[in-house]
Design a protein that fits this description.
heterodimer; A: 73 residues; mainly alpha; two-stranded antiparallel sheet; 3 helices; 11% strand; B: 159 residues
Chain lengths: 73, 159
């Protein structure tokens, strides 16, 4: 099996074009830490917008489904 | 296809696997759900969310880890702590993929590799790429610990 470099590059380009990625993780941005907080009885985490995150996750799955993650099994 | 291209692709693919492993295996940790201790790796968190919650497998173990019980009688919110870990893993994988693409764009070489203009984490993944042989051994130790402490075999580092 050979890796498709063109496909890989295309997926990474879409990751870098994701709106949440652009506003938080692009070069020059100060990326947020992922923080878990417990204050009194209230638990909170670093807010992540659902729609752009799920779009990003779909791109990540495209990369890892190419037998990459399965190699950990 | 140019002569040698297939070999280069294979090497690339090997590197690719290493990147996912770097992002998925480190660091193992424990969570306690309904009185049962679970040894987790970032990969197991990713697996629980992607193959459990997001694709609704209704897998009993996924349910226990994410929601606290094996069977669901009502809609519940998954563990915020694990959700936070999940977000972090996905971002790490993106950084790893970007790092690998930078490596490809530079002609699959570290010679004259531009360091500036990238997030430091992206550069870290590129730096780790040069140490994967040593990291294999290091992460095998991680995996042995996970296995010996009740982690699932599917999270194992070695072959």
């Amino acid at each position: 099996m050979s890796a498709s470099v063109v496909h890989f590059g295309g997926v990474v380009d879409r990751i870098e074009g994701n709106s949440w990625w652009l506003s938080n993780f692009a070069p020059g941005k100060e990326a947020p830490a992922f923080t878990f907080r417990i204050e009194e009885d209230k638990v909170s985490i670093t807010e992540v917008p659902t729609e752009p995150f799920e779009s990003l996750l779909l791109h990540v799955r495209k990369l890892t489904l190419n037998d990459g993650a399965e190699n950990l099994h | 296809m140019k002569a040698g291209a297939k070999e280069l692709d294979q090497r690339l693919l090997d590197v690719w696997y290493k990147y996912w492993r770097l992002a998925f295996i480190k660091e193992p940790f424990e969570v306690e759900c309904s009185g049962v201790r679970h040894v987790m790796t970032p990969y197991r968190v990713y697996d629980c969310f992607v193959n459990g919650e997001l694709f609704h497998s209704n897998d009993a173990t996924h349910n226990v880890i994410l929601l606290g019980s094996a069977t669901l009688s009502e809609v519940k919110q998954s563990s915020l702590f694990l959700r936070n870990v999940f977000h972090s893993i996905v971002v790490n994988l993106c950084f790893a993929a970007i790092g690998l693409k930078r490596f490809i764009d530079n002609g699959r070489t570290f010679a004259d590799f531009p360091i500036s203009g990238n997030q430091p984490v992206t550069t870290d993944f590129i730096r780790h790429r040069k140490k994967v042989d040593q990291l294999d051994d290091q992460y095998r130790v991680f995996s042995d610990w996970v296995r010996d402490n009740g982690g699932l075999g599917r999270c194992y580092w070695g072959g």
